[in-house]
Amino acid sequence: MQTNRFSRGMSDYQLKMAFIMPTMILLILMNIFPLLWSLYLSFHDYEASMQKPPVFIGAKNYVDVLTDPDIWGYFRTTAYFVVVAVSAQFLIGFGLALLLNRSFPSKGLVTTLLLLPMMLSPVVVGIFWRFILASDNSGLLNYLLSPILNLPVINTIFDPPIEWTTDPKIAMLAVVIVDTWMWSPFMMLISLAGLSAVPKSLYEAADVDRASTWFKFRWITLPLVSPLLLIALLFRTMDAFKMFDIVYVLTREGGPGRVTETVSMNLYRIAFRNYDTGKACAMAYILLIIIVALSNIYVKYLNRVKGEE
């Protein structure tokens, strides 16, 4: 019996599992274990720089995070960034997709050029935008805006050159500009995919009925594209909440002062500057719960939209 069993070779299921199991084990070791280990550490007093074992302190780390007014300030900064940046990326990306959703010469080249920013490393983007937004006249943006900034009317509002990354009033705006430049193409790509999937026959039928452009956009384009738009908004919202690298490079770790310090930036400071690993893990899980809650709202609204469709 054993000889006959081995002579037949492995079944399809056994062969499939033989290929899948190494990957599954690797994913568990790289993702599931750190997730559970950080959850364990969030209930302990532990410093990664010390050789002391973790000391159980219950929910003290969570209480310290939730009762710290400074940390709530970082959450407000992050919420402001998420709302402004994601909204700007949605409007710009969807607008560009509407413009590209037609035939014109060199459409492929134009689309590729518009997609280039999101293909770059965030660190590279932060470095060259730091030179573009340089506070003195050597900055490219200040140089291009100098004819406008030197007008008497504008001088009463801005004192040229504009200190994009060192002025506390507009430093977060600079971060929003850079993130919007980088990720608007992502919104454009998802929107363009949705617009391309809308059946042309619907527009032809609307043209026969002499429907206006607004009517076609409101009752044909928007309802059919909205599921993909919500998915794009979901991905960008989750990613914006975790935004770290652009702030780290562009404003030198959340400066000026801590005006642009997001939750992720503060999490890095707690974990790798203060070496308070337990508190950092607790803060990371609070951030995770917020992101999951927002994702559930998006998914629930997405299911409603798909049901109506």
Description:
With 309 residues, this protein is mainly alpha-helical. The protein folds into 2 domains: 1-41; 59-308, MetI-like (MetI-like fold). The protein has helices at 2-7, 12-41, 60-66, 69-100, 107-119, 122-132, 140-149, 152-155, 171-196, 200-208, 213-241, 245-250, 263-272, 277-308, and strands spanning 44-45, 55-56. The protein has a two-stranded antiparallel ribbon. Helix 4 crosses helix 9 (171-196). The longest helix has 32 residues, at 69-100. The chain starts with a helix and ends with a helix.
Going by helix content, strand content and strand pairing, the class is mainly alpha
Determine the mean pLDDT. Answer: 86
| Poorly predicted runs | none
**Assembly type of the shown chains?**
single chain
Assign a percent range to the helix content.
Answer: over 70%
Q: Which class of the largest domain in CATH terms?
A: Mainly Alpha
Whole-number tally of structural domains? 2
Shape: globular
Number of helical stretches of at least 4 residues:
14
What is the fourth-level CATH superfamily of the largest domain?
MetI-like
> Looking across the biggest beta sheet, what order are the strands in?
1-2
Q: Which CATH architecture of the largest domain is right?
A: Orthogonal Bundle
Main sheet characteristics: 2 strands, antiparallel
What's the structural blueprint in terms of helices and strands?
Layout: H1 2-7, H2 12-41, E1 44-45, E2 55-56, H3 60-66, H4 69-100, H5 107-119, H6 122-132, H7 140-149, H8 152-155, H9 171-196, H10 200-208, H11 213-241, H12 245-250, H13 263-272, H14 277-308
Antiparallel strand pairs: 1-2
